[in-house]
Design goal:
The protein has 100 residues and is of the alpha+beta class. The protein has a domain of 65 residues. Helices cover 36% and strands 17% of the residues. The protein has a three-stranded antiparallel β-sheet with strand order 1-2-3. A hairpin with a 6-residue loop joins strand 1 and strand 2. The chain is globular, with a radius of gyration of 15 Å. 15% of the residues are buried. The model has no long low-confidence stretch (mean pLDDT 83).
Length: 100
């Protein structure tokens, strides 16, 4: 069940602005899983996984398929290294704009 469901056009626009704007697609340099990334600061990284990217991630596959197969807060180190490379290359900008 959704924890937040926009009920007005203005609220829906804010929701899209917060959850979708400035996301940059990054591919893992190891398994080529593609995620969407946003960095609001040097120390903060938002990563949006799709079902396909989770299936493509070899690290997640190695961790297994049981219901408790992985800590959802523990990222794939190979993907995080790929994101760091994209940041250094200037492909993923750092900094919030308009609060997002």
């Amino acid at each position: 069940m959704a924890s937040f469901v926009p009920t007005s056009e203005e609220t829906l626009a804010d929701f899209r602005h917060y959850t979708e704007e400035r996301l940059v697609e990054v591919a893992c340099l190891d398994c080529l899983a593609r995620v969407r990334v946003k960095k609001n600061s040097e120390h903060q990284t938002s990563v949006q996984w799709t079902g396909q990217s989770q299936a493509d991630c070899q690290e997640f596959q190695r961790r297994g398929d049981s219901p408790a197969r992985r800590d959802v807060h523990k990222p794939c180190p190979r993907l995080m290294a790929s994101i760091d490379d994209a940041v250094r290359a200037g492909d993923v900008p750092i900094g919030a704009y308009d609060g997002y």
